Give the backbone structure.
Amino acid sequence: MRISALVSGLVMALSAMAAPLGSAHAAEVNLYSARNEALIKPLLERFTEQSGVKVNLITGKADALLKRISSEGRNTPADVLLTTDAGRLHRAKVAGVTAPFESALLQQRVPEQYRDPQGHWYGLSLRARPIMYVKGRVDPAELSSYEALAEPKWKGRICIRSSSNIYNQSLVASLIAANGKAETESWAKGLVKNLARPPRGGDRDQIKAAVAGQCDIAVANTYYLAGMLTGGDPEQRAIAEQVAVFWPNQQGRGAHVNVSGAALIKASKNREAAIALIEFLASDASQQWYAETNGEYPVREGIEVSETLKAWGEFKADDLNLGRLGELNPEALMLMDRAGWR
Ligand code: FE
């Protein structure tokens, strides 16, 4: 009797101790982020202010972070992976490090095409990859679609980065989804024939090469152009001002878009806080931040975008589920290789 009273007293004391310890532990979340710290830190601070949840930020390159989470296995401290490109989010899903989860808030905040059908990842900001042309050198009436970039009239006039870049892999995946493998392969061959130079450099370098006269059009994500316009470097600004954005495929499926997004890590020890963080990153205020600070687009309509983005006009975006970009990534890679896209 006395012993069992002692035992139950001990159990009560222990559970009384465990409760505050447990909740103190849950008030932290470890975020592995492939996004530049400056682009995310102020948002995280706002989240901590509102929720009381501390965010430990670990930044790194997307592929390295994924490798790290995989090798840490069940012992990974990671709760959330934040990265750009649906292709990379899909890689994390396939690697088995993410866990599907449902959230009424996220279902409401993130349109269906911008999240994984099983709930492994959710898109948080939208990135558009249109055609850019040098004003005065190209008549926009000459432009129409990504497909038309393979026409002989563009011979020696196009700049685009290499096929090792996931943005191009995702673009090609979207073309495979729309037109099939065979048609996309002959398109890629035509595009390669039209390149002004062997691919090199990043998206900004394609824009600069066009303005420098090496080519007339470039394919690039719009936030690079926005960054050149608003980054405070007068030289970059002067270059960017000579470039206009053309939204392709407006008569058909719409321009190619991608997302940055977040996934919940399967081994997360702070699941609730992790989901709350992802929900916060999809909130109106966060959506506006991406548009204003990163030069990206909100994932849903009705959110104010920056003046720079407004100046490029509204556009119709391809509504392909971005999960397809990941599924078709291996196919896209092989196809680009066969087409000689270096
Ligand atoms: Fe980028």
The mean pLDDT is 93. The chain has two domains: 3-126+258-310, 130-255+318-338. The pocket of fe (iii) ion is lined by residues 221 (CB under 6 Å). The longest strand covers residues 121-128.
